[in-house]
Amino acid sequence: MTAPAADCVGDGGALPAVGGMRPLPPTQPSGRPPAATAARRPGSGPPFGHRAPMRLLPLQPPPLPRLPRLRVPRRLAEFPRPRRLPDCSAKRLLDLVGALLLAGVFAVPLLLISGLLYATQGARVFRRQPAAGLGGRPFRTWRLLTDGGSGRLGAAVERTALDGMPQLLNVLRGEMSLVGPRPEPGTDRPDRLLVRPGMTGLWQVSARSGLPWEEMDLLDRHYVESHWLGMDLAILAQTPRAAYKQRHA
């Protein structure tokens, strides 16, 4: 009869070699932790089953490509100036057509008046006055020079507003308009710089220079805020009548 399994294995003993095989090590008794999970000595490393914290490596961005070196102008004048586009608005077209027509009509009278003024005054006939244009751009207006030496001729030229007819050159150059606020060398009202100054305006057809300066400023402001092509045509139509009334005042 064969012996029981307990007698062959034993309590905690080593298994016998079978067929020339190496015997297994003795088993641990129940209730004792396995040798691999037993407490380790200090400095022997982490215990079995302990997971060390992961260390995240810093992410490095890929290197940027080398950009070509830009040439920076040393002076502001080296920057290219923006190209000015032509003004094709209806008001500008009216100014060009009207200025060409008036220049053709008054060319001969202006030449005669200029010759007479030169004969009576014996000096230069035209004068140029500084003025602020659209956006505050400075320019100079053209006018006939009439002084005390011209006598009745100079007074008649001023009453009929012919002394301002050379400003048609400013209109053709885009510095002025046929209708607009009065040209002034400087102003403390930025709204006046939103439009071009004009040869005539509301101040011209409203008793002309008989108005005080405060009312002239109000008329100029009203024109800047509410001008349109119909208003310009109405002012141009009333300007000759206003000049005639001033002539016979």
Main sheet overview: 2 strands, antiparallel
Regions with little confidence, pLDDT below 50 for 5+ residues: 1-12, 35-39
Strand order in the largest sheet:
1-2
Q: N- to C-terminal separation?
A: 159 Å
Shape, principal axes of CA atoms = elongated
Coarse structural class:
mainly alpha
Tell me how many strands there are: 4
Number of helices: 7
Chain-averaged pLDDT: 75
Oligomeric state as shown: single chain
Topology as a string of helices (H) and strands (E): HHEEHHEEHHH
| Portion of residues within helices | 25-40%
Proportion of residues in β-strands? 5-15%
Characterise the protein shown here.
This protein has helices at 5-9, 90-121, 152-159, 168-172, 202-205, 213-226, 229-247; strands spanning 126-132, 138-144, 177-179, 198-200. By secondary structure, the protein is mainly α. The longest helix is centred in the middle third of the chain and has 32 residues, at 90-121. It is elongated.
Q: Helices and strands in order, then pairings?
A:
Layout: H1 5-9, H2 90-121, E1 126-132, E2 138-144, H3 152-159, H4 168-172, E3 177-179, E4 198-200, H5 202-205, H6 213-226, H7 229-247
Parallel strand pairs: 3-4
Antiparallel strand pairs: 1-2
